[in-house]
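Q: A reviewer asked whether we had any structural model of the full assembly, not just the individual parts. We don't, so I'm hoping you can provide one. Inputs are below.
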Amino acid sequence: MRQSELFTKTTKEISKDETSFNARTLIRGGFIDKVAAGIYTFLPLGHRVHEKIKNIIREEMNAIGGQEILMPALIPKELLEATNRWENFDVLFKLSGADKKEYALGATHEEIITPLLKKHIFSYKDLPKFVYQIQTKFRNELRAKAGLLRGREFSMKDLYSFHTSEEDLGEYYKLAQKAYFKIFERCGLLDLTYLTFASGGTFSKYSHEFQALSENGEDLIHICDNCNIAVNKEIIEEQKVCPSCGNKKLREEKAIEVGNIFKLSNRFSKDFGFQYTDENGGKKDVIMGCYGMGPSRIMGTIVEAHNDDRGIVWPEEIAPFVASLLKIKNQKSKIKNIDEICDKIYNDLQSKGIEVLYDDRDVGAGEKFADADLIGCPIRIVVSEKTLNKNSVEVKRRDSEEAKLVGVSEVVNKISNFQ
Ligand code: ATP
Ligand code: MG
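A: Here is a predicted structure for the entire assembly that you could use as a starting point for your response.
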């Protein structure tokens, strides 16, 4: 994309009421725009990143048998009354329709998916099944001061699994944990993310959270360095040792909950009378699990984790573009065909399928360098009179200080192999 055509600009003017690091940085870079506390627009650069995260999640959910659907955001009151959550889910946004009926904006979707699957699943032969969506969720969060980490409107991937038995759920639960770590690896969060034991509610001893270490995290976790797992502070009172090895020397850290998986057992199938016929003709409750993950929160977490004093350092797979191409043109330049050379590199990279942000703007070199660092694409290519005098361009990784000269005719191949 040509930066001259991008309708957004980087900015230094950020309102003082935005205090979170991830949101301030993303607003500066022109990735998001703040509408109100916990409510943001995703701008072209931010939308690209957000979509890439969602696509990684989608691929890994499909790889463990997930079937994608899209459920409505409006949930009729009766469904939430059936599970006793209309009154008890404290963050629900409630509204009334022209039909005088009441609705909640979807904060989670067990009340839609359970009756849905009930229409299609009858026998043990129909199970197990795994169904998910990636959708906007609404929660009337009390504090929405952490930028993308805690939105009142935010994106969530929610997968629900349906089984004949707790054992079968247990197997899938383990598979889902592995898939989650693949996602965190692809998002550049693997080294920071701990499988964390959290309180399980009524149906299992523990649920599991995926907590990414971060100074600005809202959660406190206790890490066991022997097992590389953690326990959430909220349960630490009764669980002062590592649940896996019994280690008592746990290390306390701040972290962000980037995902959460739960064994629901028959919590929701019971309320909706969702049963299947077993091999002997008997009726049994369908056993369920749910698996949440927040793409927008992950985007904020990546910014919190991967940055320096100049801006964001995006991990390769989720960067808005793989490369920034900077045309540094000096009015007095003796090299007259710099535009043609840059345009050719841009077109050749694009035709190789390499996503490039081409800074062809009519602004000073300082501004181009500063913006490229702030926006944070993994590779920077600079074309200037200085480099062209050596018939070269300069190539530098965002996460390294070392710049290399690469011949003009070689740059496209070099960048293809860089990835
Ligand atoms: P938290 O404890 O942080 O309030 P939660 O336990 O209520 O979150 P779930 O209901 O399990 O979260 O939601 C699944 C995932 O959705 C979370 O792990 C997180 O990644 C994301 N998520 C939840 N609430 C928000 C929010 N307000 N803003 C952005 N992402 C969120
Ligand atoms: Mg939680």
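A: Points you may want to mention in the reply: The chain has a mean pLDDT of 95. The pocket of adenosine-5'-triphosphate (ligand 1) is lined by residues 108, 139, 141, 150-151, 154, 156, 257-260, 292-294, 296-297 (CB under 6 Å).
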